[in-house]
Amino acid sequence: MPRSSTQSDVVEKPVKTRRTKDASVAERKSSVRPKKMEPSKRSRASKVKGPLGERLAFDVARFDEFVMGSSDPTNFMREARLSTESFGQMKLFKQKQRWIIGVDEVGRGCLAGPVVACAVVLPGLEQKSEIAERLALLDDSKKLAASVRENLSTTIRGCAQYAIAEASPKEIDTINIFHASLLAMKRAVNSLVSSAMIDLRETLILIDGKWTLPDLDANQLPVIKGDTRSAAIAAASVVAKVYRDALMKGLSESFPHYQWQSNKGYPSGAHRQAIVEHGMTEWHRRSFRCLPEGDPDDRSG
């Protein structure tokens, strides 16, 4: 069972779980600190304009702050920038790769199905490029029409590095939905790190919400309402949502009474009534209150 996570209401500085140098080394080098970047420079970190450009600039600015808060900032001589070099990944200072991972989850409030998480590293984007135009509507997945989400997910999965992970209904019932959500996000991050061979020491993980991921030795920054502020988190939100919706639609073919093809496992009236008439399936979360309110047979918590 994952240990309880520690709440973080401050979203301006990343949570650091690893020091890059001994404190004494940092003190000896403190006299040669890099010049602090002005906000105007940060605003030019992304060449893409509009809401997408603002979200990309938000991600880069958070990485710049992570660098400036490093225990050995003299390793970093220039501000972070997005580039299309090396498969479009983040390039930072001295030609070293640095990574920004966005992670989000979907399905916390459902009565049935897993909670699904996605971790994404977006490519560098250029103004008026085909990919930038196709990602122009990127936003919190809950705000988008299904057709828009699906088009965005196809684009993201075609141009970005990503990983999808789940926590099962049984795991949700065992450790509760909060810890299962963190577990799914941690699994997604670990899967992406492994497949893309990412060095977590050179990575900043942006997490939607106000909690860090437990037992993950990495630089983590919770971002409240991150799916509306961060491009990487929004991308993770979209991919996870489209994946989970398709999963529930597929399951509905085996369990047609519950109408998962339309409610996706969320607590609609028809879904609750189907549980009354047909009982629960292996995909239902028995720790949730699944029956209509006031039903004498509802013994779930």
Protein architecture, described:
The protein has one domain: 2-Layer Sandwich (Nucleotidyltransferase, domain 5), CATH 3.30.420.10. It has a 5-stranded mixed sheet with strand order 5-4-3-6-7. By secondary structure, it is an alpha/beta fold. The protein has helices at 23-29, 39-43, 50-68, 85-88, 130-134, 146-159, 169-175, 177-196, 226-229, 231-252, 260-263, 269-278, and strands spanning 91-92, 96-97, 99-106, 115-121, 161-167, 203-208, 219-223. Helix 6 (146-159) crosses helix 10 (231-252). It contains 12 helices and 7 strands. The protein starts with 22 loop residues before the first helix and ends in a 23-residue tail after the last helix.
Judging from the principal axes of the Cα atoms, what is the shape?
A: globular
**Alpha-carbon distance between the two ends:** 20 Å
- Quick check: average pLDDT? 80
What Rg, in angstroms, do the CA atoms define?
Answer: 21 Å
Largest sheet: 5 strands, mixed
Stated plainly, the CATH topology is called Nucleotidyltransferase, domain 5
Q: What's the number of structural domains?
A: 1
CATH superfamily: Ribonuclease H-like superfamily/Ribonuclease H
CATH architecture: 2-Layer Sandwich
Beta-strand segment tally:
7
In order across it, which strands form the biggest sheet? 5-4-3-6-7
Number of helices: 12
